[in-house]
Structure formats: C-alpha cells, structure tokens
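*** Residues and shapes ***
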Amino acid sequence: MAPLPLLESLIDYAGLFPPAALPMPKAVENYARYRESPEAWMLAKFVVPASRLDEIEESAAGAQFPLSVLGSADLAADLERISRSRSPIDTIELKASNAAQIESAMRLIPASITAYFEVSDLSLSPSIAAAGARAKIRTGGITPEAFPDAAFVAQFLAACAKVDVAFKATAGLHHALRCFRPLTYSADGPSGWMFGFLNVILAAELARDGKPAAELEPVLVAETIGKLRLFGEKLGENRGFLISLGSCSFEEPVADLIALNLL
C-alpha cells in the first residue's frame, strides 16, 4: 500500500492509555504487529510515561521502538531515565500552566529532544514559539465532559497558526470523522460527540492558511466526508502543521479510512 502524504506517520500509538488502557506487554505486542502491517507507514511513535521506560524495554525484548515520552512534574528525573534508555527518544510531552514553566523546562531539555507543551491557556502560544517548542491539545477522554467544545479547538488551531507553532493532538481521535460514539470499550460506558482526525487535519491546514477560528468550527463538526470536502481540497495535500495524533487504537483509524475508500 503506497503511503499517502496526508496520513504518513500520523498516529502515535497510545495503547497504554484509556480507554484501551492495555498492559505493557499487550501494547508492545500490538505496536510490533502494526509495524509489520500494510498500514505501517501511518504509524509514528509509541507513547509511554517516563516512569515506565524500563518496563517497555523489558517487554520489547531487545526491540527498539521510537518513543514519545510523557514527562512528569519531576522533569530532571524523567530526563535521567531518557538518557539511560536504549530506545530512540526525540520527543517529550509536558504540561505547562505559565510561561515560566515552559522556559524552565526548556533550560533542562537537550537540544536533541523536541518538547510538546499541553496548555489550556492559549495566550501561551507565543511562549511556546519563542522556546522553539511545539504545542499539544487534548481533544477528548472517557467522559463527555473531557471533550473541549469546537470553539476551543478552533481557537487553539488559530493561535498556533498565528505564531507558526506545530502541534500534536491526543485523546478521543480514533475515528476519521466527527461522530457520536461510545467513549469507552465498556458495554455500560458513556457515549458522546468525538472529533474526527480528518476534521482536525483539515481545520489545522485552513488555520495555517489564515482562516479565523469562527470559520474553523464548521470544519470541526462536519459529520461526512462530503461535507468536509466542501471546506477545501486540502485533504489530498501534505500535512505539516499537525505533526501527529495520539490514539489508543491504530486499528480503528485504519478501519474508518478503509470504509471511506481513502485507503
């Protein structure tokens, strides 16, 4: 299967995290299998907390996976664990609530590691840009309340575009199009509206073209590929502004794309 530039290296596999919440051996087994699948070109990094780096290396039995590490409040300890890892690590994901936290973290992080900062205050986008870092947005969770509204996502995209900051999105993005679905794999779990990763990709590219947040909201809530294409033809072009998506599933995004005849 020939790689599509729009989807290449799109999905950071986060099988350790809800709603999948797989044990480490199973998540590692899945990732290794996906790396050998016909859709392997869509796969990017394996997402792992810094505190579990030793565990993944034990489960991988000598295999070296490209990792994206979730940092903690003790960044110095996280970086020490990263320095001891045998696996290739070039990204770390952190939370920040103010510019001072971003600046402090960047003084510790080696130049060989790209930092992503998850922020809820969009006024921090210039600080992320000034630090030479990237942004991160959490687009869902396992309850309806965990999903931001379309207006916030649109404002995040516009804020990143304004200062030319690339970003990744994570959580609740394992379906291609906006949809109302169960939010967990439990039979009695809640359902809710989920953002589609194709919606986010297109809205991000339109933001980079200068579209204001108000014009991005309808893109984010379009529920069919036909409606989505009404907003532009960029679904056939390269993806550069959105670096990757964190997803606890790799099989569901692939299945959705096949059903849409995009794979």
About this structure: The longest strand covers residues 43-49.
